[in-house]
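Re: beginner question about structure tokens

> Can someone show what the tokenized structure looks like for a real chain? I only ever see the sequence side.

Sure, here's an example I had lying around. Input first:
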Amino acid sequence: MARVRRSDGGRSWTPSAVDYRRVLVEQNPWQGSGEAPEEWAPPVERRLAALLADDLLDTESNRFQLVLGPRRVGKTTCLYQAVRRLLARGVAPQGIWWFRLDHPLLTPLNLGELVDPVRRAARPDAPAFVFLDELTYARDWDLWLKTFRDERWPIRLAGTSSATAALRERRLESGVGRWEEQYLAPYLFGEFLALVEADVPLTVEATLAETLAANVADPPDLTGLPSLRRWFLLSGGFPELLTRFATDTRASSSETRSGLPPTTAPPPGRDEASTLLRSQRTLRSDAVERSIYKDIPQAFGIDNPMMLERLLYTLAGRVTGRLSPQHLCQELDGLSQPTFDRYLSYLERAFLVFTLPNYSGREGTVQRRGRRVYFVDGAVRNAALQRGLGPLTDAEEMGLLFENMAAGHLHALARQTQVRLYHWREGRHEVDLVYDHPEHPLAFEIASSVRHSTAGLQRFVERFPRFRGRCHLVSPDAPAAPPDRRAGIGLLPLDLLLLAASRQADRALALRLAG
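And the corresponding structure tokens:
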């Protein structure tokens, strides 16, 4: 058996079979009780949990599923909820196996050693269901998944990782046709509204452009959403924070019975300052520091996480802005550009930030032009910057967070639909977000007010006529108005764009897993 070194620096020891058995019993309590513990699999589910269970039970499905996304976004919870669904649908508890691969006793072992006993107990007509949490902690995990699939081991498998080392740093050919990536974003606005029981009916069509057109023609009732959007922005789209808010909101609504929609205001005793500070404390510790000092070093082998944290802090101060690697390298004490590029890619692969290239209309020139930087969730940006209460009183900063929120929603949608997302800048003219769907492209300028200039959108339409009638000025106070015939530019309420992107992403996820 593999030797394990003590965490206090003492001598290593060799675990016994009893030690391994104890760990597996702890990680698989349903094999004794027949149930997944509610604290691991809470009743409030995200859409992915149900879809994963359906896919694992589908006898026609022939791919493993890897769930990737930021820390604290609920990947492990989704898998536990999938376990609960399997049990509810009659799968034998002894046929479901969970391995938390960052456990000190399991980390030294390869996947073959862990899964082989499961394989021996399973049959082709009764396969085992294997869940691998924190997959990238296992050595040569990609080759073992290839072996499982190619040698037809009687298992169906789902795994999680907080870093895309799972797909980007290993032997890519191993995964072709063998596993599928499912991206779990932070909660989107539509999911949050459903969580707090303030859901808004929306017509959802095949593409985002068609969905927006349908809901501009027949606008939904968005009354009461601005205050919820602000709370969602400050708290961030992370389940631990949002479910607490939803519980308090439902409790207050049952107590007050005021006759007004209970979710148009925060529950009694809840204020924006405490929400913002609690969010920053939680995300600083759990999302930022664990990614910087644990996930990225583990996945990519870096030896200077403090410089990585400084880079993230610097990017947080430039959110929605254009990247200038030369200036950033000078600011970071002469950091070399190759190291800057590598560290930035690590932050992207750990789902902390993403960058958008400048749209050119010609693929060959896209990557050679300036990029903009965004955070996957604006609350992570606030935590990285340790901004405190600043966003509450700074209107300009709040405008940047609105743009980051819109970009994050479209980024989540783009990952589900495989549509490229860009920004555009040419001289003094710019457009914030370009969703380059091949048949139904869209361009958006995100503003704090409907009085914002549309000069950038007008210039963009002149340069790229395929976007005529598909450009929108988006702001919190904008009415829903279709593109006019003269300039081809429409108006969108920010809440409508967020809702439409949320529902479209949910539809795309369901289609991906059903296919």
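Each token stands for a local structural state, so reading them left to right follows the chain. The longest strand covers residues 155-161.
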